[in-house]
Amino acid sequence: MVDFGPLLSLTEVKGTHLFSSHRRKNHVILIYIEDLSLKEVPGRLAAYLLYLSEKQGRVPELDLDVTKGQLASLLGTAPETLSRILARMGRQDLIRSRGGASESWIVLSWKRLPRRGESSFRE
Predict the structure, then answer these.
(1) What pLDDT digit, counting tens, does each position of 46-69 carry?
(2) What is the dihedral of CA 43, 87, 101, 72, to 10 degrees?
(3) pTM summary value
(4) 23 CB neighbour count, 10 Å cutoff
(5) Which of 5, 13, 79, 85 counts the most CB atoms within 10 A of its CB?
(6) How far, in Å, CA of 3 to CA of 10, rounded?
Protein backbone atom coordinates (compact mmCIF):
# COMPACT_ATOMS: atom_id res chain seq x y z
CA MET A 1 0.00 0.00 0.00
CA VAL A 2 1.26 3.51 -0.91
CA ASP A 3 1.38 6.21 1.76
CA PHE A 4 0.25 9.49 0.17
CA GLY A 5 0.51 11.47 3.42
CA PRO A 6 3.98 12.94 2.81
CA LEU A 7 3.09 13.75 -0.79
CA LEU A 8 -0.11 15.54 0.23
CA SER A 9 1.67 17.61 2.89
CA LEU A 10 4.37 18.56 0.34
CA THR A 11 1.65 19.59 -2.13
CA GLU A 12 0.02 21.74 0.55
CA VAL A 13 3.30 23.55 1.23
CA LYS A 14 3.87 24.14 -2.49
CA GLY A 15 0.29 25.38 -2.84
CA THR A 16 0.80 27.84 0.00
CA HIS A 17 4.00 29.13 -1.62
CA LEU A 18 2.22 29.41 -4.96
CA PHE A 19 -0.62 31.47 -3.48
CA SER A 20 1.87 33.66 -1.62
CA SER A 21 3.83 34.26 -4.82
CA HIS A 22 0.67 35.17 -6.73
CA ARG A 23 -0.44 37.50 -3.95
CA ARG A 24 2.88 39.41 -4.13
CA LYS A 25 2.69 39.64 -7.93
CA ASN A 26 -0.92 40.83 -7.79
CA HIS A 27 0.06 43.48 -5.24
CA VAL A 28 2.80 44.81 -7.54
CA ILE A 29 0.37 44.87 -10.49
CA LEU A 30 -2.24 46.64 -8.37
CA ILE A 31 0.27 49.33 -7.36
CA TYR A 32 1.28 49.81 -11.00
CA ILE A 33 -2.36 50.14 -12.13
CA GLU A 34 -3.08 52.52 -9.27
CA ASP A 35 -0.06 54.65 -10.21
CA LEU A 36 -1.13 54.84 -13.84
CA SER A 37 -4.74 55.66 -13.07
CA LEU A 38 -4.48 57.93 -10.03
CA LYS A 39 -1.21 59.80 -10.41
CA GLU A 40 -0.50 62.48 -12.93
CA VAL A 41 2.68 62.12 -14.99
CA PRO A 42 4.78 64.41 -12.73
CA GLY A 43 3.78 62.29 -9.72
CA ARG A 44 4.65 59.08 -11.57
CA LEU A 45 8.01 60.57 -12.57
CA ALA A 46 8.72 61.63 -8.97
CA ALA A 47 7.84 58.10 -7.79
CA TYR A 48 10.23 56.65 -10.38
CA LEU A 49 13.01 59.01 -9.28
CA LEU A 50 12.47 57.95 -5.66
CA TYR A 51 12.55 54.28 -6.72
CA LEU A 52 15.77 54.89 -8.66
CA SER A 53 17.28 56.71 -5.67
CA GLU A 54 16.53 53.79 -3.36
CA LYS A 55 17.85 51.31 -5.93
CA GLN A 56 21.09 53.27 -6.35
CA GLY A 57 21.69 53.87 -2.64
CA ARG A 58 19.81 57.12 -1.93
CA VAL A 59 22.28 59.34 -3.75
CA PRO A 60 21.23 62.73 -5.16
CA GLU A 61 22.76 61.96 -8.57
CA LEU A 62 20.70 59.32 -10.38
CA ASP A 63 21.87 57.40 -13.42
CA LEU A 64 18.99 56.49 -15.71
CA ASP A 65 18.76 52.76 -16.21
CA VAL A 66 16.49 53.17 -19.26
CA THR A 67 16.32 55.51 -22.25
CA LYS A 68 14.02 58.53 -22.09
CA GLY A 69 11.72 56.83 -24.61
CA GLN A 70 11.53 53.73 -22.43
CA LEU A 71 10.93 55.88 -19.35
CA ALA A 72 8.08 57.68 -21.10
CA SER A 73 6.55 54.32 -21.98
CA LEU A 74 7.02 53.07 -18.43
CA LEU A 75 5.28 56.19 -17.10
CA GLY A 76 2.43 55.83 -19.59
CA THR A 77 3.07 59.07 -21.47
CA ALA A 78 4.52 60.38 -24.72
CA PRO A 79 8.25 61.18 -24.93
CA GLU A 80 7.39 64.80 -25.74
CA THR A 81 5.33 65.10 -22.55
CA LEU A 82 8.19 63.65 -20.51
CA SER A 83 10.62 66.13 -22.08
CA ARG A 84 8.32 69.05 -21.20
CA ILE A 85 7.98 67.84 -17.61
CA LEU A 86 11.74 67.38 -17.25
CA ALA A 87 12.31 70.88 -18.66
CA ARG A 88 9.77 72.34 -16.22
CA MET A 89 11.40 70.50 -13.32
CA GLY A 90 14.73 71.98 -14.41
CA ARG A 91 13.31 75.53 -14.59
CA GLN A 92 11.87 75.09 -11.10
CA ASP A 93 15.25 73.93 -9.74
CA LEU A 94 13.91 70.50 -8.79
CA ILE A 95 16.39 68.56 -10.90
CA ARG A 96 19.44 69.24 -13.02
CA SER A 97 20.35 67.10 -15.99
CA ARG A 98 23.87 65.87 -16.60
CA GLY A 99 23.77 64.72 -20.19
CA GLY A 100 26.32 62.59 -21.93
CA ALA A 101 26.48 58.98 -22.99
CA SER A 102 24.91 57.87 -19.71
CA GLU A 103 22.05 60.23 -18.86
CA SER A 104 22.03 61.23 -15.21
CA TRP A 105 20.05 63.69 -13.12
CA ILE A 106 20.76 65.44 -9.87
CA VAL A 107 17.69 65.85 -7.66
CA LEU A 108 17.92 69.29 -6.06
CA SER A 109 14.72 69.21 -3.98
CA TRP A 110 13.03 65.96 -2.99
CA LYS A 111 10.54 67.82 -0.79
CA ARG A 112 9.17 69.90 -3.68
CA LEU A 113 8.68 67.01 -6.12
CA PRO A 114 5.01 66.29 -6.84
CA ARG A 115 3.27 63.72 -4.68
CA ARG A 116 0.55 61.20 -5.40
CA GLY A 117 -2.24 62.64 -7.53
CA GLU A 118 -0.66 66.04 -7.96
CA SER A 119 -0.46 67.42 -11.46
CA SER A 120 1.68 70.49 -10.79
CA PHE A 121 4.78 71.18 -8.79
CA ARG A 122 4.69 72.86 -5.41
CA GLU A 123 6.20 76.31 -5.26
Answers:
(1) 888 888 888 888 777 888 878 889
(2) 40
(3) 0.60
(4) 9
(5) 85
(6) 13
